[in-house]
Amino acid sequence: MIPLNIPETEDTPKVTLDPANGMFEISKRSYPEDATGFYAPVIGWLGQYMSAPNPETNFTFRLEYFNTASAKQVFKILTVLDDLSKQSKVTIRWHYNKQDQDMLASGQRYSNMIGAEMVMVEN
Amino acid sequence: MSYCFQAFQGYMASHRFFYLLKASKHGPFGGYIISCVLEKMIYFYPFAMNATTTNTLQFAHSLFGNAEAGGLHYVYQGNFSMELTNSILGIAESNLENHHEAAGVKKKVYFIMVESLQNITRHQNDDLAAPGFFIIRRTGNDYYVTSCNTISNNEIELLESKLLEVNSLDQDSLKSHYKDILMHGGISDKGGAGLGLIEMARKSGNKLVYDFEEINDKVSYFFFQTKISSVRGTETGAGMHRDNLEEAKKLHADILKNNLSLVYQGEFTQEVVKCALTMTEGIGDKDPLLLKKRSFLIVVELLQNIFKHGQNPSGGKEGNPGVFLTGKTGDEYLFSASNVILKGDVAKLRTKLELVNSLSKPELDTLYTKVLLEEERPGDKGAGLGLIDLRLKSGHALIYDFRELQDDHAVFTLEVRISPNSTHHDPPKHS
To answer: Which of A14-28, A89-103, B70-84, B148-162 is predicted least confidently?
Structure first.
């Protein structure tokens, strides 16, 4: 499957979805003008990946900031990963800065909302 | 004369803490203020006090009265850095673009802004290190750029003689005078030879207007204003120029009185949001990371709200009109945003705000999760999480106000306060 690489900008995150190299990561900042529009290709790509996934998918979130519109989109991605976890092994790593308790709380909230394994990683 | 002096004293008293916080990192030249004012602002003073709203809410509303005129307006107090200057210029540029100004006018306004900003930093008195003040405002076809910085009393005579000289010259004489100084020197020990003043007079095509306000027996405030006319032959008289300087001084006093550090009025777009974020990111260098992150996200939510949910009564497409204020009192930061909504939406929004304010933290968390789970509807511009998130991040009840405009619109102002160690303040329970 063709990897999806979106370079970061000031207000949109870096997205790396590369099954051949086992890299699945969303990082940096996410407060785009149109969050739904930005994440549509990401969610679309994951939908396609569902049809022929790797035996194991390690998905990393390493966000510094995300706005509420992005929060909704992140949840949609997690929902897809949750579905994927019913057919193959999925581990989601949610990174947070030690001092950023809000980022940890967001991760824990998502973790409680899905069945897939979600690990909180302190940086 | 006296109100400016009082305002300055008040300013020094209220901002000393803020300044000291910054001084160690950026040296004694750190603080300054930038302000851009919009035309007709004067008509909205003085604003009536209302027991149910805060002073800053009133101030925001007073700025909004002329939103439809679509000018630019901001105030900044903090450290002068390259990044900050770029943000200030970036916002101004974005506004000039929106007004479709001719390239020549844009270049002149830009040049004079840069020159004014440099004057503030270069000529700031090191012993006093008082923050400066900078305003850009559009009135009709004219742009007014006003700066203010402190100056030693013993330097006033020389500076005034230069200003009088520049003002006495016509355009041709300014040109030859400029060449003369370049070729024969006369450079002052501060690196300027009045060259900046000559260039500003040349590019603006108008006389320079200024005023000195004595602070004490050692220093004074130096107010300085340049006017750029965007349409030839429509220049207003020197009297108007002088009146505008007095208005700028009045605004200066109001901003100081309200403990504000950044005020921006104009059209809001994602570009403006990015510039405003760069400015606010410098706030609170010594504050905990969590406070900085929360402040950043509060600004994102408030400002994106303006262009996602706001209305543009004039029908313009380049962003929605709004007002954004930040301030600091003690260790508490204040962020406030105003935008236009439809009168018909007031009741619904008020109900939402009342609900969010009435909930405890666990109840807000539950509501947040519930909204996350809701299906997206086509045409949704946000996640419907903004107000919940603002209330959670602030810990305090959200402060808000609606004010009706003449037509089908109303101005909605939302004020969010945040302090280090802020815990969630549950609403009082009624039996």
So the answer is: B70-84
Cβ contact A113–B373 (<8 Å): yes
Whether B304 and A31 lie within 8 Å, measured CB to CB: yes
B371 near B383, Cβ under 8 Å? Answer: yes
SS3 B312: coil
- C-alpha B122: how far from chain center: 21
d(CA A62, CA A28): 6
Mutate to test the interface with A, among B269, B275, B299, B304 (most CBs of A within 10 A): B304
Position B392 scores a pLDDT of 95
Label residues B280-302 b or e (16+ Cβ within 10 Å = b). bbbbbeebeebbbbbbbbbbbbb
| Residue B352 covered by a domain | no
Q: Where are the beta strands (DSSP E) in B257-316?
A: 260-268
* CA atoms of A99 and B94, how far apart (whole Å): 35
Residue type, B245: L
Q: What is the pLDDT of residues B366-410, one digit of tens each?
A: 999 999 999 877 766 666 899 999 999 999 999 999 998 878 999
Residue B36 has pLDDT above 70, yes or no: no
* Domain spans, chain A: 4-122
CATH architecture of A4-122: 2-Layer Sandwich (3.30)
Judge: A31–B369 Cβ closer than 8 Å, yes or no: no
Which of B181, B190, B118, B185 lies closest to B152, judged by CA? B190
Each residue of B103-139: pLDDT tens digit?
A: 888 889 989 988 888 877 776 545 555 677 788 887 7
Residue B431 confidence (pLDDT) above 50? no
Q: Look at residue B150 and tell me if it is in a domain.
A: yes
> Does B405 contact A at CB distance below 8 Å?
no
- What mean pLDDT is reported for chain A? 96
Return the minimum-mean-pLDDT range out of A28-32, B29-33, B64-68, B179-183. Answer: B29-33
ipTM of the complex: 0.95
Characterize the bridge pairing of strands A14-18 and A4-6: antiparallel
Tokens of B397: 């009840």
Instruction: Give me the residues of B, 265-294, that contact A with CB < 8 A.
Output: 270, 273-274, 288-290, 293-294
Would the pLDDT of B250 be above 90?
no
Cβ A65–B297 below 8 Å, yes or no? yes
**Is A102–B290 a contact, with Cβ atoms under 8 angstroms apart?**
yes
Q: In the block, which residue shows the tokens 């300014």?
A: B174
**Rounded distance between C-alpha atoms, residue B91 and residue B215, angstroms:** 32
Burial of B25 by CB count in 10 Å (0-12 exposed, 13-18 middle, 19+ buried)? exposed
Domain span including residue B315 = 2-343+411-418
Nearest-CB residue to B372 (from A75, A100, A103) = A75
CA distances from B247 to B21, B49, B225 (A): 31, 21, 12
Q: Which residues contact B211 (CB under 8 A, 6 or more apart)?
A: B222, B223, B245, B249
> What's the total number of domains in chain B?
1
Contacts with A32 from chain B: Cβ below 8 Å: 270
